[in-house]
Amino acid sequence: MNEKKELKKFSIIEKYLKNKSNFRDKDFEKHKFESLKLSIITGLFAWLIISVLLNNITLGGGLSTLLSLFLFITLIQAPILKRKKRAKIIESELPLFLTRLACEIKLGKTLPNAINSTIKSDENSEIAKEFELVLKDMNKGISFSDALHEMNKRVCSENLKRALSNLSNISSTGKKDVLGLKKLTNELLLKQRIESKEFSGKMVVYALVFIAVSAIVPAMFLSFILIGSFFMKLSFTPQQIFLISVIGFPLIDGGVLVAINSKTPLFLKG
Fold first, then answer.
1. 15 vs 232: CA distance, rounded Å
2. Nearest residue to 234 via CA among 243, 223, 242, 245
3. How far, in Å, CA of 39 to CA of 45, rounded?
4. Of 206, 209, 222, whose CA–CA distance to 261 is shortest?
């Protein structure tokens, strides 16, 4: 009921994309059919509107076809990109989760109890939500290995697959041997340290680019306008200069910040 109430707040397309990040491969054909249907309906509606506004059926048909194609590609790619992004988020949370889980196992707790205790320490993380689903599946009577298999289907991650394989071995043997988990955790932490050092080196370049775009370029632009108005007869109106300075340059600065944020490793974002 809560999901239905929440979905009413969004548009048709946002409704369609909501909670699609965990769709399974076997549902992809159905997803493509739904995307195609929504794209065609939207295209026909756009064709009618554009044809009336432009008074040209042919041009309206061409523009609506392009709109339908763009919408179809967007609908197909959006859930896939969400799924990949979520997998990366889970991978970034994996080392800390495995470290806590290994400590709980070494305390002598059973694997389900250890997982439950680890989940409670960070309930808002994506990986905790996934393991919570594992425990819910077990409460329904599904075996631990099958519950982990279902988690593997939901999250496409090789590192997570290795971690779940270790947990499955611990569950099947009944031993409290967490050496495999510790080894995997150390590998993941080493990988994160390497990525962190690489990003630190690139951050110097990013900082220089941002300083140039936010300070040097606007100053050079204003100097160019002042000098050019005397020697090259440039014709910039005060309104144009105001818009470029107040809107144009801040948009460029924002674009640079977005680009830097997209290059920042997820585990450094906190």
1. 54
2. 223
3. 10
4. 206
Angstrom distance (rounded) from CA 225 to CA 243: 14
Place of tokens 């775009």: 213
**Identity of the amino acid at 207:** A
Percent of the chain predicted with pLDDT > 70 = 86
pLDDT for position 231: 65
Lookup: tokens for 78: 């959006």
| Dihedral of alpha carbons 161, 167, 172, 173, sign | positive
CA distances (Å), origin 147, targets 86, 105, 224: 19, 19, 65
List CB contacts of 168: < 8 A, sequence separation 6 or more: 144, 145, 148
What's the distance, CA 216 to chain centroid? 33
- Number of CB atoms found within 10 A of residue 131's CB: 22
222/217 Cα distance (integer angstroms): 9
Domain ranges across the chain: 9-85, 88-186, 195-268
Q: CB atoms < 10 A from the CB of 162, how many?
A: 17
Give the span between the Cα atoms of 114 and 120, in whole angstroms.
10
Element (H, E) at 199: helix 179-211
Residues with Cβ within 8 Å of residue 70, at least 6 apart in sequence: none
Per residue in 160-208, pLDDT (tens digit) is 888 888 888 888 877 777 888 888 889 889 988 998 889 888 888 999 9
CB 118, CB 101: distance < 8 Å: yes
**Helix%, strand%, coil% for the chain, nearest 5:** 85, 0, 15
Whole-model pTM: value is: 0.66
